[in-house]
Write a structure and sequence with these properties.
The chain has about 425 residues and is of the alpha/beta class. It is built from 19 helices and 6 strands. Strand 1, helix 1 (about 15-30) and strand 2 form a beta-alpha-beta unit.
């Protein structure tokens, strides 16, 4: 009987491994009752963990690794700038969508007078000729010349729409414009964090005054919308969520990252454990390896860790393993980076390496193609788990295409 040895990936522990093993067994039993599925839970025995209880992670030990930390007082400001660094016109766009940037209603018409929006655009055009504004801009070290930044912002459709939607004075539009101007320069520079927050905010205050000043007590609908947009952006991007829930996230992610680092530094024990699981099986073995499990299994088969026993091929590699199926594996990337413990880049696969099928999903950002870097001896199979990026890496076991691929591999391995 053929044995399918299931080698899990990074960060997997019980009960997660047991759940995945059950799903694999159920899928195989429904399709191939002639195949036995055996576990290889290396993570429970040799996976990484916080040996000092997480004292290196701020707040982790004090909170027992649970729950969000109290948000910083300036959390909303941080979230706002995270949004602006990515999209400098976000607040102006939101201002236009709200239909008004003030709480005072439309300004009365004054014959011969300039509309507030026109005054703002004129003030923006005049900024480069202002000695005070130019000096403050240069001192902040934004890199992009003020004249260029002001001209590019003045040409932005979103600013024109915000101006058209502005109901009059007092208005928050000068401050939104000042923030957009600074954010645009920082965005163009490619490293927005290079300017200290205090210097950035002081520059925004100076530019706001030069653009006509503001009344921070107006525009509550806009302010609420901006807060919501900023928080939503930060939650999606992960920054605010990661900080506010650092202890909880650290508890879940430390095994994921730690397993990779630990394996690349001291992987001998893990490979030896997997080798023992291979030896313990009777008859031919197909290794099904997910994520880091694919790296471990590749290294085991490529480096000839199994040096004893009669059932070995040239170089001591186990003939018992008839095929390797990697799923969402990073082995191809590490090989191209010349970072695999077993094979230097350019050496290719050993001649006696078993048939290898590498399954990947384009939405799984932890999966990679192998055939282009190894050339011979491996077949890439692209699948579509129909899941977003955040869920694609763990969604292979629910994909019928994977089981069809595995069924084909088993057909070629199973004794006639």
């Amino acid at each position: 009987m053929v044995t399918l040895l299931f080698v899990h990936g990074t960060g997997v522990r019980e009960p997660g491994y047991g759940d995945a093993l059950r799903r694999v067994r159920e899928a195989v039993a429904a399709r191939r009752p002639d195949v036995r599925v055996e576990p290889c839970d290396w993570g429970s025995a040799l996976g990484s963990y916080l040996r000092d209880g997480g004292v290196s992670i701020p707040g982790f030990a004090q909170q027992g690794g649970r729950g969000p930390e109290a948000p910083a007082p300036d959390e909303e400001q941080v979230a706002r700038w995270a949004l602006l660094y990515s999209d400098p016109l976000a607040e102006l766009r939101l201002s236009a969508l709200t239909g008004t940037a003030t709480a005072a209603g439309p300004a009365p018409f004054v014959p011969g007078g300039a509309a507030p929006g026109d005054e703002l655009l004129e003030a923006l055009a005049a900024l480069p000729s202002s000695d005070a504004a130019s000096a403050a801009w240069t001192e902040a070290g934004l890199g992009l010349p003020l004249a260029r930044a002001a001209a590019e912002l003045a040409a932005a459709v979103d600013l024109r729409r915000a101006v058209a939607a502005d109901g009059g004075s007092p208005s928050v539009l000068p401050r939104l414009t000042a923030r957009a101007l600074v954010a645009h320069a920082l965005h163009q520079g490619g490293d927005p964090g290079r300017v200290p927050a205090a210097a950035r905010d002081a520059l925004v205050d100076r530019l706001t005054g030069a653009l006509g000043g503001d009344d921070r007590g107006v525009g509550e609908a806009l302010a609420a919308g901006a807060r919501f947009a900023a928080r939503l952006f930060e939650n999606v991007l992960g920054s605010r969520l990661a900080v506010a829930h650092r202890t909880a996230l650290s508890g879940r992610s430390v095994g994921f990252v730690g397993d990779i680092v630990s394996y690349l530094v001291r992987g001998e024990a893990v490979r030896a454990l997997v080798a023992e699981r291979v030896r313990a099986q009777s008859g031919p073995v197909v290794v099904l390896a997910h994520s880091l499990g694919g790296i471990i299994s590749f290294d085991l088969l490529a480096a000839g860790v199994l040096l004893d026993g009669a059932d070995t091929g040239p170089g001591g590699r186990p003939r018992q393993v008839k095929a390797l199926v990697t799923v969402g594996s990073q082995a191809p990337l590490l090989y191209e980076l010349d970072a695999l413990p077993s094979r230097p880049y350019g050496s290719g696969l050993p001649k006696d390496f078993p048939p290898w099928v590498n399954v990947y999903d384009r939405r799984d950002l932890l999966s990679y193609r192998a055939s282009e870097v190894f050339v011979d001896g491996v077949t890439d199979v692209e699948v579509d788990n129909r899941q977003p990026v955040s869920a694609a890496h763990s969604a292979y076991w629910s994909n019928d295409t994977l089981w069809a691929v595995l069924d084909d591999v088993l057909d070629r391995v199973a004794p006639s």
